[in-house]
Sequence to fold (156 residues):
Amino acid sequence: MSSWQSLSAHVVAGHRVASGANGNPRFPGGTLHMQAPYFKALGVDLGAYHPGTLNVSIAPCRYSVRCARQTFRNIKWHPVEPAEDFSFFDVRLIRPDAAAVVGLIYFPHPDTKPEHFQQPDVLELLLPFVEGLDYGAELRLEIPADQMLIECPGLA
Fold:
């Protein structure tokens, strides 16, 4: 079992496409709603998670992929959009005075993703609904070191 890296993060605005909150008619109900049956058939059931991503910035840190918990290639989840590759990583959200919340990092591979790119310091989290996570909210994440490498300037 890998050790878990702990790092600070804060909630940032996303594109609101995963949840469908942006109202884009190409993605009725949101991209996660459309993708969920494909992921479930491959062994990742998103049913326990809020149907949208929580976007968090880990700046000034950056991440790089080591070995995902699961990776799915060439998923044709949309009738018109091109197939994409996706990976999932374990994550724990740590908040003071509350139990840890266990979830996944949702990672559409940038090289197969047609639009809605994330900044290099932003992670998209799939979690059960958590109260009080407004934009700017500070939190701590724990991520397995064997799944993602987290590098922060000035930290040895």
Strands lie at 4-11, 54-57, 62-65, 70-75, 84-94, 101-108, 122-126, 138-144, 148-151.
